[in-house]
Inverse folding.
């Protein structure tokens, strides 16, 4: 396993991050119903991940339901007291939890409550990377940043990150934090894969300039890039895309099948799996710190973790780049014709 700095922060994390969205068996009120794994399996996955050198775990208060994923991780820490200091622990807040008019958002009132709830569920005295799950246009960014800065100064949070931010909002946030001498975001967690490369228009250059580490989520496009799906065939029973039919409809396109063909071909040449090739491609992209992957079984964990040792040549990266090329639109196509962005 290799390790990289968490963006501009000094702490080092494994290049693969274990995503905990599937930890715990949620009931039919949750969007994760029937796509998670039980507590025992979740704990076995955490044990093996640590053995493999993965020291970075990412969750969120909304994963599962009522903080289920955080509670599963907290129980694992409780049973393994030494594990907490071996893990860089990340969680997120922003989306709906509980009831009432303040059940979602990024106000100071809510942030203070959310962090205390997460600390209690996780059974820890600190969150190593605390991330806002998405920008909140209903709250002034200064209010959010001041509340987060206070958490850092109080020692409840060590580093700050954001997720699903528009580029304009992220630059505004970074600038506000800089001029006010507040702690700023060191990471951007965002959807990024061979299927979804829109981040390259604005966010990748932005993160390079400001020193943010990118943490790709859904690097296998909800499993589409794992190789278990076939063109002109229904998703296999039990697969996530069998349940998430709207997303399956978005992936079932000529471009996406061409991407999967390129991934599968390269996997055959290198004696790797499609999942490993897809994850390795991201690890060769600029500003990527750690790629977040999920696992519902030990077999999935082992397969994905092996991606850390897959090395692609510049020519192989370009082959995948070309196969997954997308219409960047205006003004990026216009600027490219002038010699670059």
């Amino acid at each position: 396993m290799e390790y990289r700095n968490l963006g501009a922060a000094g702490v080092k994390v494994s290049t693969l991050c274990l995503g905990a969205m599937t930890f715990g068996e949620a009931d039919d009120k949750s969007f994760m119903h029937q796509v998670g794994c039980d507590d025992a399996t979740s704990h076995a996955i955490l044990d093996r991940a640590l053995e493999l050198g993965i020291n970075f775990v990412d969750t969120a208060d909304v994963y599962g339901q009522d903080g289920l994923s955080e509670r599963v991780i907290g129980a694992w820490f409780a049973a393994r007291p030494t594990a907490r200091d071996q893990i860089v622990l990340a969680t997120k807040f922003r989306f709906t939890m509980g009831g009432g008019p303040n059940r979602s958002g990024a106000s100071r009132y809510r942030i203070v409550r959310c962090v205390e709830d997460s600390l209690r569920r996780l059974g820890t005295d600190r969150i190593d990377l605390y991330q806002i799950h998405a920008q909140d246009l209903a709250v002034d960014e200064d209010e959010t940043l001041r509340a987060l800065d206070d958490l850092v100064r109080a020692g409840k949070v060590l580093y700050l990150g954001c997720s699903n931010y528009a580029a304009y909002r992220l630059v505004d946030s970074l600038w506000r934090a800089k001029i006010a001498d507040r702690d700023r975001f060191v990471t951007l967690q965002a959807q990024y894969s061979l299927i979804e490369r829109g981040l390259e228009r604005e966010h990748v250059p932005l993160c390079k300039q400001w020193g943010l580490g990118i943490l790709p989520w859904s690097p296998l496009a909800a499993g589409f890039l794992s190789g278990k799906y076939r063109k002109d065939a229904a998703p296999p029973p039990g697969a996530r895309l069998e349940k998430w039919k709207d997303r399956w409809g978005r992936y079932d396109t000529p471009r996406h099948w061409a991407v999967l063909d390129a991934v599968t071909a390269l996997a055959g040449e290198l004696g790797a799996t499609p999942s490993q090739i897809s994850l390795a491609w991201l690890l060769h992209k600029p500003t990527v710190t750690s790629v977040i992957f999920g696992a519902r079984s030990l077999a999935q964990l082992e397969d994905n973790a092996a991606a850390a040792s897959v090395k692609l040549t510049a020519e192989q990266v370009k082959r995948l780049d070309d196969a997954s090329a997308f219409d960047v639109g205006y003004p990026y196509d216009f600027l490219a014709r002038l010699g670059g962005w």
Observations:
- The chain has a mean pLDDT of 94.
- The longest helix spans residues 254-270.
- The chain has one domain: 3-337.
